[in-house]
Amino acid sequence: MTTFDKLFFHFFQYYKSKKSKKANDIATFYVSFLQCSLLLLLGVFFSGFFKQMNVQTMSASKAWILFVLVVIFIYFKNWMQYGGRKRKIRNVKMLKNKKLDYNIWVLWFLPVVVLGLTLVLFQAL
């Protein structure tokens, strides 16, 4: 199981007791949001790196369009991966492992921190 799988099931188990019908949607949104924010951080980092190296790879508008397309792909990939039968099988495997003891507020703050780092890197360009 990957780190994102573990985070998904932590969110799923946490919100299943509170909002049972929306637990899967909330957990899928969180994992997708975290992956997209990490992708944005990497994109801004490599944009600055290539700018310092004087490499012209693609225009900014094409990069943003590519980012939006990848975000849509990530969301649908997570929706397919964590929906239905696969989620149930992985949930059983996850229940056998020890329960994660992360604070839910710290986990919600993690993508915000990544977006803050992205903003700092973007301003440095």
Brief sketch in words of this structure:
With 125 residues, the protein is mainly α. It has one domain.
Structure description:
The protein is mostly helical. The chain has one domain. Helix content is 81%, strand content 0%. The protein contains 5 helices and no strands. It has helices at 3-18, 23-52, 60-81, 85-96, 104-124. The longest helix is centred in the first third of the chain and has 30 residues, at 23-52. The chain is elongated, with a radius of gyration of 17 Å. The termini are far apart.
**Structural class, from helix and strand content?**
mainly alpha
Q: Sheet bearing the most strands, described?
A: none
Q: What is the number of beta strands?
A: 0
Helix content: over 70%
Mean pLDDT: 87
How much of the polypeptide forms β-strand, as a percent range? under 5%
Uncertain spans: none
Transmembrane segments: 26-50, 62-80, 100-122
Keywords: Membrane, Transmembrane, Transmembrane helix
List keywords for this structure.
transmembrane, membrane, transmembrane helix, 125 residues, 5 helices, mainly alpha, elongated
